[in-house]
Specification:
Two copies of one chain form a homodimer. By secondary structure, chain A is of the alpha+beta class. Chain A has helices spanning 10-13, 19-22, 26-35, 90-94, 116-125, 127-153, 156-167, 183-189, 194-204, 221-234; strands at 37-41, 46-48, 56-62, 65-70, 76-82, 87-88, 102-105, 109-115, 175-178, 209-212, 215-218. In chain A, helix 5 (116-125) crosses helix 6 and helix 7 packs across helix 9.
Chain lengths: 235, 235
């Protein structure tokens, strides 16, 4: 059957690797992928806005999408920065809810948008999609609990070191990389004031981490891991 | 059909008011309720343990259940205290995951335990249960984002005032009530050190809040609301 469907564009291939879609039956996946639209966004583009009726689920194919909330008194809290392969909005769509956050491209970004009505209809007919959405929601609950644990327990230096370690490629010791987004967004995503982040960056020179504008050089990844372990002992 | 089933015990009636079960078809609800077990717990009883295979979903019928996580270095982070009508573990069960937290009775507590295998089987056959689980997961994601917003943005006094306000009955101005759990658990659930909580309690005397052991007297709820609004402006 799916042989009669037109081939999927290259950008859709990444959907198969996304946790939300990875375990779907071929028919369920084809149904969603055929209706999905690819969107290219520039830095600052709003992908969806808090309070709007949730009309589509979004999968990040390339770049970063910043998800933040506006509180009643107008403060913006950055909740999470989503990267390649992460999905957002699918539970809100199925719950026929409003988006509880605003999603904004942090730089140039490519996303796939899956229409919500089709999502609901498919989840009703194909339990594998309903279960995939539950699994993904469970993963998001755990990720948010991790975040709460970090905010309640970890110091600024621990948060910054963990973040820098997440940027280092596996199996290297010395590495140089570019910060994926601005220092303001990094501070917000770690729950720090920007001056606290700057002071932490300054302290980390002592363990061989140099930060020059958006370029980071880590002299020894092993040293960073040892420092994280040492700080964990002190808490 | 359900007329041939034995009547449900009184404690099961609360299940119908729980968000997770409220919108279910009568057949779907009856199937789960008939297999559910009522459990009475004493303070400190472990209801499930982090890392164990998730084998049942839990609904709190009476009392409070504290859900916390143990990090790799042995720190315990209190994530949330669940009260009457709140459910926990259902996404982990359906995702065939391990419990990501430990659930412990904070005082005497009554819970209903729904066997996980039945939960999965029913969600597969009845899409209304699968959708109810997704809705509940979405509500949990939003509650956790609220928590992150509070941790990132609000000061100790704001957190304490919001918590005290949540204890006041509606439509009263002066009220006296008992703290639902210990100051240690309150501090942990608000992401504060216990001494920070005590200092905040001391400052709140100035706006008419008296705390004597576990008894709280609020001279004017309106005054508390005004103070919350004032602090929100300052942030």
């Amino acid at each position: 059957m799916s042989a009669t469907l037109p081939p999927l564009p290259k950008e859709m291939e990444v959907l198969r690797q996304v946790p939300l879609f990875a375990a779907l039956q071929p028919e369920t996946f084809a149904r969603l992928a055929q209706a999905a639209r690819i969107e290219r966004h520039a830095k600052g583009d709003i992908i969806f806005r808090q309070g709007d009726t949730a009309q589509s689920a979004i999968v990040v194919v390339d770049g970063f999408v910043k998800v933040s909330r506006l509180s009643a008194n107008g403060d913006e809290t950055l909740i999470h920065i989503f990267g390649r392969g992460e999905s957002v909005g699918e539970s809100a769509v199925v719950a026929r809810d409003r988006y509880s956050t605003t999603a904004e491209a942090v730089g140039p970004a490519v996303v796939v948008r899956v229409p919500g009505a089709l999502f609901i209809q498919t989840a009703r007919e194909f339990p594998d999609l309903a279960f995939a959405i539950i699994n993904e929601a469970q993963a998001k609950v755990i990720a948010l609990m991790d975040e709460i644990e970090i905010l309640k327990v970890q110091t600024a230096d621990q948060r910054v070191l963990r973040f820098l370690l997440s940027l280092c490629p596996p199996d290297v010791d010395t590495c140089t990389m570019r910060l994926p987004y601005t220092k303001g967004d990094i501070a917000a995503s770690l729950g720090l004031k920007q001056e606290t982040l700057s002071r932490s960056f300054a302290r980390l020179k002592a363990i061989g981490i140099e930060i020059d504008a958006r370029q980071v050089t880590v002299a020894s990844v092993r040293r960073v891991e040892e420092e994280i372990a040492r700080l964990n002992q002190l808490v």
